[in-house]
């Protein structure tokens, strides 16, 4: 991947990323939409550039290089252009970022360390005096992205040391059921519950988490209005709502198309959740992450994916959504956060996922629970 490496304000798989740093300087002129159609070829060209050489604006995000690689590689898979990726080179690079215990694995596991994947090469570097850097640890979000990349390029996860990863994952779960993203401490919220659930699902090993405790934590995050906050008692948020519902689906607590089943017996308030999600489609056709916020490309996925899991995606105005997304399409490929702004790889990826949900011709179908194409997920 290029020379350097998100969430909407609260991305389920990202931490400590200021998305404004992923954009070109505001002094540059805006890039208008190239057409009234989804310009697949330009999007492929855009992702090829991001795969080979990221612009210098991403230098401050070098530590998140695995995540940016996930956006580029998985994005190309959505666009049915994975053949443009050197799969062997990608596998070799991703595997080189896996954290491994020393000879005495039991001793290292007892220290509480998590043996997943580092976010980039720089996070593996020791300090000059031989001591370990404070950021020299593997991270839940990076581990999710690493496994997602490996599955996307067709690498069998049975070839990695999944047992150590699953065993050490348990070190990150807190007494209330939430997860730390890194063992030295950080905030705990639904983003990392989702990462943990997705990791367990991909490894086909749930020994790394107490599912019951995680379920209880998730249910406590549902707010009075039906949406989910990132932590119990916080404002409902599109990203947090996705993390909650997708986690419960991956963990087997929610079945497909809830609206066709007995919603009264569900562990969450499905009718209120459905109403909250549908209210997030704004008058311009786009989706907002919270009430009274501007429509944002990425929420076409975060909220749209929840509606798909609930069986309520058919209730959205798909033509209006498509129209909004096209106003965020750059003439050079990629999507921006808001209409008329510069594209960035984060919003571009979720723009492609949104068009996949809209069943745009020429795109691979998407597994919303796992955040991968159906082909990679299976």
From TrEMBL:
UniProt xrefs under Pfam families: Prenyltrans
Enzyme Commission number: 2.5.1.59
GO cellular component, one term: CAAX-protein geranylgeranyltransferase complex
Entry annotated with the keyword Zinc: yes
CDD domains in the cross-refs: GGTase-I
SUPFAM superfamilies noted in UniProt: Terpenoid cyclases/Protein prenyltransferases
Cofactors (names): Zn(2+); Mg(2+)
GO MF terms, alphabetically ordered: CAAX-protein geranylgeranyltransferase activity; metal ion binding
Signal peptide: none
UniProt entry keywords in alphabetical sequence: Magnesium, Metal-binding, Prenyltransferase, Repeat, Transferase, Zinc
Domain of life: Eukaryota
InterPro entries membership: GGTase_I_beta, PGGT1B-like, Prenyltrans, Terpenoid_cyclase/PrenylTrfase
Annotated Prenyltransferase alpha-alpha toroid domain residues: 38-366
Positions of region (Disordered): 1-36
Compositionally biased region (Pro residues): 1-10, 23-32
Enzyme class name: transferase
Family: Belongs to the protein prenyltransferase subunit beta family.
Descriptive protein name: Geranylgeranyl transferase type-1 subunit beta
Organism, scientific name: Turnera subulata
Organism taxonomic ancestry: Eukaryota, Viridiplantae, Streptophyta, Embryophyta, Tracheophyta
